[in-house]
């Protein structure tokens, strides 16, 4: 008695497993109710500052200046 899977069985089981893992996420995304409806008019206040992190070697340097950073801040 061998317990080998054929290619077809492996693909079928993989597809079934993927469906089992995906289905709850899809159902959660589609369902549910919300007190604030899609047509609600709420105002959001934007922050005045933007904190941005970047690897320093990605920023261009010309002498002591950083032209890309200057244009971004402008």
Number of strands: 0
Helix content percent band: 40-55%
Low-confidence stretches: none
Order of helices and strands: HH
* Major pleated sheet: none
Percent in strands: under 5%
User: How large, in whole angstroms, is the Cα Rg?
Assistant: 26 Å
Query: What is the average of the pLDDT values?
Result: 81
CA(first)-CA(last) distance: 73 Å
How is this structure best described in words?
The structure is a single chain. The protein is an all-alpha fold. Helices cover 42% and strands 0% of the residues. It has helices at 7-30, 67-73. The longest helix has 24 residues, at 7-30.
Q: In short, what is this structure?
A:
Helices cover about 40% and strands about 0% of the residues.
Features:
74 residues; 42% helix
Layout of helices and strands, plus pairs?
Layout lengths: L6 H24 L36 H7 L1
């Amino acid at each position: 008695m061998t317990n080998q899977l054929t290619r077809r069985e492996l693909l079928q089981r993989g597809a079934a497993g993927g469906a089992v893992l995906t289905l709850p996420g899809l159902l959660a995304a589609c369902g549910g109710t919300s007190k604030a409806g899609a047509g609600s008019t709420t105002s959001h206040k934007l922050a005045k500052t933007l904190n941005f992190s970047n690897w320093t070697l990605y920023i261009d340097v010309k002498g002591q200046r950083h032209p890309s950073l200057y244009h971004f801040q402008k």
